[in-house]
Design brief:
Length: about 325
């Protein structure tokens, strides 16, 4: 493959409402798109959107964008969808995604009902952003009124001490919880394993990727789920390597966006379709933006619809 030209395009996207986690609040998203054109006129795209507080530095975000643009061109040359190029299987048409409803403390039952009416079967909330007892009360009120098929996915972003995490988990015992991400302020494998033994639903690590480097992690997994953000790992191929190791160890992988623009979110969706086509991923985030870098994928009945064209399928705004 020969590259004819390359350029970067900066963007700044305001959010409809603040994105609140225990690590801070975002009101806008900054990044840049990489545009590569080969000598035959094909164009590949990548999205670099650093988010240091979530472990995504400039170097990792740039590596993700550069790899994505090259993979986009490679898949186009073979007339394959990017997820088919990555997996070696026929192209996926769609993948299931959870609703991203923000901080639990800010949400009303009416917003949960609206997401359910739109076809979502897993509702994700940020926790650890309000006093523990208040969140437990809100969680019980919400969970007690849900239809039987609906589950809650929770993300604490390393908000709690060990005792706080135990208290929260104990309160969840009779609720329809799909999983809990990053419960501990200072996570270590032994503490996470002790918490995982306490519950039937999966605990997950996301930003605590330093734990993956420990020799025993995949030999004796302390949690049952990994959250993969390809920009944090430096690209899709590195993420696939982690997913393969996780699969051997019996760990489920869920792909989530790092609140990238439409381009980066689409790349994450192709990765999700390649490594875990039957899981429910965290990619319904584009609706948080007041405007975007390009055409957004349609989400229909809780499923993210992938482009039917070859490559990434990103269509930028003019």
């Amino acid at each position: 493959m020969k590259i004819h030209s390359a350029d970067w395009q900066d963007y700044q996207l305001p959010l409809h409402q603040p994105w609140q986690t225990s690590l801070g609040i975002l009101t806008q998203r900054r990044g840049r798109l990489l545009r590569l054109q080969d000598t035959e006129g094909r164009i590949g795209w990548g999205d670099a959107a650093p988010l240091p507080e979530f472990g995504i530095d400039e170097a990792a975000a740039t590596a993700f964008a550069e790899e994505c643009a090259y993979l986009d061109l490679s898949a186009q040359r073979l007339d394959l969808s990017l997820n088919a190029w990555l997996s070696g299987h026929p192209a996926a048409r769609n993948i299931a995604v959870n609703a991203n409803l923000g901080a639990l403390s800010d949400k009303s039952p009416a917003q949960a009902r609206q997401a359910i009416a739109q076809g979502y079967r897993i509702l994700k909330f940020k926790v650890g952003t309000a006093p523990l007892l208040d969140e437990i009360k809100a969680l019980k009120q919400l969970g007690g009124g849900l239809p039987a098929e609906i589950k809650l996915r929770l993300d604490a972003n390393r908000a709690w001490s060990m005792q706080e995490a135990r208290d929260f988990i104990e309160s969840c015992q009779n609720l329809p919880i799909d999983g809990l991400e990053e419960p501990l302020l200072r996570p270590d494998p032994a503490a996470l394993a002790a918490l995982q033994d306490q519950v039937d639903f999966p605990l997950a690590i996301d930003e605590s990727i330093e734990l993956l480097a420990e020799k025993s992690f995949f030999q004796h997994p302390p949690v049952r789920r990994l959250i993969l953000k390809p920009a944090r790992h430096g690209g899709m191929l590195a993420s696939i390597e982690i997913a393969l190791r996780a699969s051997v160890a019996g760990i489920e992988c869920i792909v989530t966006s790092a609140l990238e623009s439409a381009c980066g979110t689409l790349a994450c969706a192709h990765l999700a379709a390649a490594i875990a086509p039957h899981s429910v991923h965290g990619l319904a985030t584009s609706e948080w933006f007041a405007h975007d870098t390009g055409s957004r994928a349609e989400i229909r009945e809780g499923r993210f619809c992938l482009p039917t064209v070859s490559g990434l399928g990103f269509q930028p705004n003019r």
